[in-house]
# Entry
Amino acid sequence: MKALHHSTLRGLWLLVWLALALARPPAGLGQSPPATPAQAARIKAAVEKIGVAGEITVESLAGERYHGAITEIEAVSFELAEVDLQQKVSLRYDEVKKVSKGYGRKKNIHGQRIPPRRSRIVAIAVLGGLFGLLLFGALGTK
# Structure
């Protein structure tokens, strides 16, 4: 019984460590090359699909992340009201690496917002791990 308790605690610590590791953004490895016209057009289409007043997460080619609501969409750039900086930020489509709808409401232990997709992945991983521990514990007691 004591060995099962020790392995269960070890499994829980492993899950906590994994969740924290996934929630932390990767360190930047330098600047990316400029976006191609096709990439800029794809970013523009995604911004237009989200629309004015839509919540958005933007990752720039420099590795910076912006979270906020779109206030203006133009031919070569767009503007958003950044929620953390509490100011408007203007970005050109060719400066943007990736955009996604919505923005993470909670912040990780580093004070950074967690992108919505990563939040879902971490939640699924934690729930799956807990289910696995419960199943392992139920099978181990018989």
Observations:
- The CA atoms of residues 81 and 88 lie 4 Å apart.
